[in-house]
Amino acid sequence: MTLADVARMAGVSSASASLILNRRAGTRISSETQERVRTAARELGYRPNIAAQSLRTDKSHTVAFVSDFVSTTRFAARMIRGAMKAADELGQVLIVVETEGDVEREARAMHTVLDRQVDGIILAAERARAVDIPDFPDSVNVIMLNAMNDAHPHAILPDELQGGRTAVRELTAAGHRDIGLVGYDFESGIGGSSPSVTLERRMHGIREQMAADRARFIAQGGSRRWEPEEGYRIARAQLRAGPVRAFLCLNDRLAFGAYQAIAEAGLTIPDDISVVSFDDDDISSYLRPGLTTVALPHEAMGRLAVERLYRGSPAEEVLVAMPSIRRGSVAPLSVGARRTG
Questions:
Q1: Which DSSP symbol is given to 255?
Q2: Which of 222, 223, 274, 334 is the most exposed place for a label (fewest CB within 10 A)?
Q3: What does the alpha-carbon distance between residue 273 and residue 244 come to, in Å, rounded to a whole number?
Q4: What is the DSSP string of 268-337?
Q5: Transmembrane region positions (predicted)?
Q6: Which helix or strand (DSSP H or E) is residue 147 part of?
Q7: Which 8-state DSSP code applies to residue 137?
Q8: Where in the chain do CATH 3.40.50.2300 domains reside?
Q9: For residue range 154-172, what is the model confidence (pLDDT) as tens digits?
């Protein structure tokens, strides 16, 4: 079945049928006519000739998503989900290629997607970091997703500065001013599970909000591995050193370890101690009580990457807000506890 067959059955011109079936924006065709054309296409089993469209428009309607470990990482995989949803809504095809950080596989992946004449490439990283960009034809748009490159300004990143401020406010709004920091030590500079281009922004936001709210860190513990055992070790040491009524953990896995240390000390969350974290990993909703955390907006970032490629948006750094996911791990500090400090 051809486009002309659909147009004839719907009683419209081939040009009108093309506008409707290709979802062209700004058409003044009535909704009734549009529905009539779509019904005719369904009844006739019409399928557009993508190859012919590509030759005519010089567009393949295909976007490549090339990443390191995104698809195999629990919450980072949401970037792919967001990109897939946006691609489907915009009538695009998304090709996902995972390189697992292997340089040779990455080179092969680039040749593969370029051979398919994709309209754009999303270069994504599981953890925010600087990445190397191979040479691309000028006709191919490239967007960094959760990644940066000094020579390539088009990047989509979480707004870590705002996220750091938000996390602190969750505690200070509940009256907490003396806070234990789990995962980073400002004095030694130790912290971070891997080199991150956004960690510095997160820590800057934390310090800014602490100063604005007249709060202080009564204890700090850094680790280069943000895993539960390190969270347990740091939180246990801080609890043994003196009373702590609030913990700010730099990711949910550290917070999971802190939960264990708190229970071992005979304390309860949030009655005795409040906990706030970052990421919104799946584990945060399974903890009891649920963990209040500042989410990495991975799905929104993936969606935005496809939309910006589709629209041909200007090359610039775009920061996506990190929302606070409030659960049950924060409670107001009692008046008596404030007096005793």
A1: H
A2: 334
A3: 7
A4: -TTTT-EEEEEE--THHHHSSSPPEEEE--HHHHHHHHHHHHHHT--S-EEEE---EE--SS--PPPHHH
A5: none
A6: strand 141-148
A7: -
A8: 59-157+298-320, 160-296+325-340
A9: 999 999 999 999 999 999 9
Structurally, at CATH architecture level, domain 3-48 sits in Orthogonal Bundle (1.10)
CA neighbours closer than 13 Å in the CB half-sphere of residue 320: 19
Beta bridge partners of 219: 180
Return the CA Rg of the chain.
Answer: 25
Distances (CA, A) of 281 to 151, 231, 294, 325: 32, 15, 10, 11
CATH label, 59-157+298-320, candidates 1.10.275.10, 2.10.260.10, 3.30.430.20, 3.40.50.2300: 3.40.50.2300
Cβ proximity of 268 and 286 under 8 Å: no
One DSSP character per residue, 60-107 reads --EEEEEESSGGGSTTTTHHHHHHHHHHHHTT-EEEEEE-TT-HHHHH
| pTM of the predicted protein model | 0.78
